[in-house]
Amino acid sequence: MSDDVAQAGTLWLELAGLGLREQFIDVAGIRTRVLEAGAGPALLILHGTGGHAETYQRNIGPLSRHYRVIVPDMIGHGFTDRPEIDYTLDDFSNHLFGLLDALGIDRAHISGESIGGCIAAWMAIGRPERVERLILNTGILDRPDERGLVQLADLEQRTKKLAEDCSLETVRRRLEWLVLDKSKMTDEMVRIRHRIYNQPGMVDSLIHITMAVLSMNRGLYCGRDYLARERMSEIAQPTLVLWSDHNPGKPFNVIKPAIDLIPDAEVHIIESAAHWPQFEQPDRVNSLMIDFLNRPLKS
Fold first, then answer.
1. Cα separation of 267 and 129, whole Å?
2. pLDDT digits (tens, 9 = 90+) for 236-280
3. What domains can you pick out in the chain, each with its CATH number?
4. Is residue 149 scored above 90 in pLDDT?
5. Beta partners for 46?
6. What count of other Cβ atoms lies within 10 Å of the Cβ of residue 11?
7. Angle 168-176/187-197 helices, nearest 10 degrees?
């Protein structure tokens, strides 16, 4: 990404000329928004809680030069339908496998950020025959420590505030939780998210999904322990773990015991980043992802 694009922070400057396609696909009755660019091996990229496809605006271009990049608004998010469901990892996973089916994709690399990383891991464990390689970006199956729970409670309050005041400033405050340097959160990203959150009923859905994710972080949800650390040992795919040096909620030292359970994991700490390293340090993240995915499999 060139310096002028990085400073402008403009979505169109970063995506122009890629042949980017926006489409809406019916997935078992769920109208699902998808951004797609490039050709080659399929790479499914998953955003975090309350996110949307544009959170990868600085990654789609470089990655699409090597892969068929597929970035959906996950169920309940963005401009995708928001059904009345529990929003467990199973709900997200089933919807995404349905999306791959609709796109005619049998196997894909899967990369996820935050809850998207938890969903990616869940997909790899549950349907290993459909996942080629796995990239976990500040998202992994493990619960936070007490300090992390306090930070997640802060995110909870920032989200609930949207029900009272879904202004540009309130949206900005929620987005600033994701980055180390608050000044790097662009006005454009704030406006994109503000537009999404001001859809009728969207804030209620966002609060519901956020509470579901926080419940999974705190313990049992819908009678199941979705973030049981020991499940990480079941990941059969080569796995790239990208963490950040200032990740809120789950710092690296807290999450390392879970990472150590992954049989075939490569780990990198992204410096000068919080919860969105793909946005704050895109060149570093893109380079690591491309190198990992292009590398020949071990014999």
1. 23
2. 999 999 999 999 989 999 999 999 999 999 999 999 999 999 999
3. 3-144+227-294 (3.40.50.1820)
4. no
5. 112
6. 16
7. 110
- 69 SS3 class: strand
Per-state percent for the chain, helix, strand, coil, to nearest 5: 45, 15, 35
**pLDDT tier for residue 147 given thresholds of 50, 70 and 90:** confident
pLDDT score recorded for residue 9? 58
Cβ atoms < 10 Å from Cβ of 2: 9
Residues sharing a CB contact under 8 Å with residue 67, sequence separation 6 or more, in sequence order: 38, 39, 40, 41, 42, 43, 109, 293
The DSSP bridge partners found for residue 35 are 22, 71
- The predicted pLDDT at position 10 comes to 81
Per-residue pLDDT, 299: 61
Mean pLDDT value of segment 20-29: 97
DSSP string across 183-244: GGS-HHHHHHHHHHHTSTTHHHHHHHHHHHHHHHHHS-BTTB-TT-GGGGGG--S-EEEEEE
Task: Give this prediction's pTM.
Answer: 0.94
d(C-alpha 189, C-alpha 185), whole Å:
7
What gap in Å lies between CA 61 and CA 28, rounded to an integer? 29
Give CA–CA dist 105/82, Å, rounded.
Answer: 24
Give the integer Cα–Cα distance in Å for 157 and 170. 11
Q: Reply yes or no on whether the pLDDT at 33 is more than 80.
A: yes
Which of 276, 124, 144, 116 has its CA nearest to residue 214?
144
CA separation for the pair 51, 201 (Å, rounded): 16
Residue found under tokens 């993240």: 285
pLDDT of the residue at 5: 40
